[in-house]
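We read letters as residues; the fold follows as tokens. Both lines appear below.
***
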Amino acid sequence: METISNTVWQRKGSCVVFDRKRLGGLIHEGSLISLREALSWSKEIPATPPVPGRTILVSGLETVVEIAAPQDAEDFLKRRIRPLLVSLQNRWTDCGVVFGFSSHAKAFEETTLEEEVLFRRRDREIVRLSKALWDGSGALDMKRIVREADKPGEEITVGYYVARIS
């Protein structure tokens, strides 16, 4: 899987980010909205993003993925979130959608063959996060978002990004 260390994920496409440093900056900028508000756009997308910058940070998706049965969580991502992301990427072409997760990086597991990202919930159940959220786009176009670690030359994975859902 390719990696990116720039901030294109803040201005285009969609991603899941679990790094507190990255999420904290977005919260400070006023980019945070609730999952409920984002889902309300399924009926009618506002003409312009309701945040001051070019990044929309959505909170609450992790709770759905944690609480719903794994298959129900995957169905929710496929039937409610993915269509919303397609609509948003077609309407707001210069705006990134970030789903903030508070889970540790170890909750996200990359499969080697399919380049899929799995989410291991607190109850140890698995949700096929990238497959449900981005479908085929994930395997082809998903990138690992990284930042420099405290030690020079080391990188820390902070999330996963897809520029456009097909």
User: Anything to note?
Assistant: Strands lie at 2-4, 14-17, 32-34, 55-59, 96-100, 108-110, 117-120, 126-127, 143-148, 155-162. The chain has a mean pLDDT of 92. The helical segments are 20-28, 35-40, 61-67, 70-91, 129-134, 136-141. DSSP finds six helices and ten strands in the chain.
